[in-house]
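During the practical work, I worked with a single protein chain and the tokens that describe its fold, as given directly below.
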Amino acid sequence: MKKRWLPKYVSEYVSKGRTYYRFRRKGYKPYTFKSAPGTERFREELRACEDGLSAPMIEVGEGRALPGSFDDLIARYYRSAEFLDPSDRTRVVYRGVLERWRQRVRKGRRYGEIMVRDLEARHVEAMLSELLPRRTAANMLRKRLSALMKFAVRIGMARINPIATTRPFKIESGGFHTWTETEIAAFEARHPLGSKARLALDLMLWTGQRGGDARTMGPANVRDKRIVVTQEKTGAIVSLPVLPPLAASILAAPSGGLVFLLNEYGRPYSRKGFGNKFRQWCDEADLPQCSAHGLRKAAARRFAEAGCSNQQIKAWTGHTTDSEVARYTAAASQELLSDAAGDMLMANLRQRLAIDPNNHLKKAN
């Protein structure tokens, strides 16, 4: 029995005098909720179902995949530590790439039906070329197939990884556009302090976190004038001081929910819902080139321009390598950085002269 107030794909049924709620979606396995509708735990379970985690897609030919085929390999891969170790969100992305690939048909056969031992580098090149001109999508598929074939080698389904001999396509784009200070000011002018849009911007800009983390931040994350975030993508925990601009934005916005950002129905945003809403807010500010992820890059850029070290920037963003930080801070102003470097150089020289008055630098001056 379906009630109007229940979310899409959720229905109610009674068994042995007890009421249950179930997620049922065509092509996906059903899921029975453990919590009652309206609770935060129910919303978490629902998000997991919508993302294909608690209610995963029914595998084509599941239980009757041809031994040694990619259908067989992928089913094994989904049960492996290599696939299960990353975060829930990452697994959704990885699964989506592999599922779209194995359902593709060429010469009357799905790629999932191909025998793993028959895959050669030339076949991979042809598969990737089918995605052109979408080079980023092709490179993503190459990475996922490479991980899949490494797993195949480890479990004895393949002798070599043919993807290793292929090369990724060169990407000219620098990724998501990094917001400039002018663009930040334009958004703030269109969405003043106290608005939901402004709070969304400030939660990302003044914490350096992703949109997926900003949409779940709430009063429970604030402790002793710090905001503690467990990053959705990596599971990393960052504890950050609540800077004055963010504190002012939180205090100015309506409160009372478990999270700071609620949609028009008084519920937390879904991942897709938040992305669409922030896209709307950017368009209203006449900023079609800007995005939520670009704010994370802008936060990193600001730290770089302030002279912060890579270690300091990583402490905010949660990145683990310097190369990741380098990508995010590529838009830092060269003039500001060179001025800061010059000031640091001259300050060091003045300090050396003060310690050693006979230093040859004094004579040079």
User: Anything to note?
Assistant: The beta strands are 10-15, 18-23, 31-32, 105-106, 109-110, 222-223, 226-230, 237-241. The mean pLDDT is 86.
